[in-house]
Amino acid sequence: MKPIVCYVTGRESLREASTDSLLAKIRGAIAAGVDWVQIRERDMTARALLEFTKAAVAEASGKTRVIVNDRLDVALAAGAAGVHLRGDSVPASVVVRWLTETGAPPEFLVGVSCHSREDTVKAEAAGANYVFFGPVFDTPAKRKFGEPQGLARLGDVCRSVAIPVIAIGGIDESNAAGCLRAGAAGIAAIRMFQERTEAELRAVIAKLHNAAPGESNSG
Question: Which H or E element spans position 118?
Fold first, then answer.
């Protein structure tokens, strides 16, 4: 399977921090071939987040999976493809059990942010479909989670679970292939998508999707 390329949104870092500007970035990323868009806009009200997510899902038109950070209610109401849980979110086991009991679509994804091998193993046992692991490299947005994990630790985590591990934290076109060679099923980033033109992104994403066999591990 081709590597997963995920754009994690960060409206606050845009030159014009508006929802219109962010939606334009999402539109460009989708056109460039991104596989997932994770909407990570923590300052939005539930109502605003719902309307924005609906707009993003409409832009995706089934070509790209839209995943909502933390808000399961918004993800389901907007018709998103999944929810991504933080360390302080409702436990993945509770979310997975509730989705099963309520008859949610079986393809609905539950992802978890992890910062250690132990966290990743627990997420898999809880029924998560995938995890984000990082920060792999140094990045201002992830410094609160400690020192960069590095490629060796990423590789160890990837070998420890069967579910896809998505590398995050300081990922750009210069080091993304290294993450795939370490065993990651894909990469996730904010700045790489928000600081590139659509044409530049198209080239980067195409290169990642065409990674040679052995450079990625779908889990």
Answer: helix 117-125
Structure tokens of 177? 């292939």
Domain residue spans in the chain? 4-209
Q: Tokens at residue 104, please?
A: 């949610």
Tokens of residue 97, six digits: 């059990």
User: How confident is the model at residue 217, as a pLDDT?
Assistant: 42
Distance CA 100, CA 136 (A): 33
Share of the chain above pLDDT 90, in %: 84
HSE, side-chain direction, 13 A CA sphere, residue 71:
24
How far apart (Å, rounded) are the C-alpha atoms in residues 63 and 41?
22
Whether the per-residue pLDDT at 130 is higher than 90: the answer is: yes
Exposed, middle or buried by CB within 10 Å (0-12, 13-18, 19+), for 136?
buried
Map tokens 């539109």 to a residue.
27
Strands (E), 12-103: 36-39, 65-69, 82-85
Burial track 64-91 (b if 16+ CB lie within 10 A, e otherwise):
bbbbbbbbbebbbebebbbbbbeeebee
In the chain, % of residues over pLDDT 70: 93
| CATH of region 4-209, choose from 3.40.630.10, 3.90.1150.200, 3.30.390.50, 3.20.20.70 | 3.20.20.70
Per-residue pLDDT tens over the stretch 177-214: 999 999 999 999 999 999 899 999 999 999 999 874 44
176: closest CA among 187, 192, 162, 189? 187
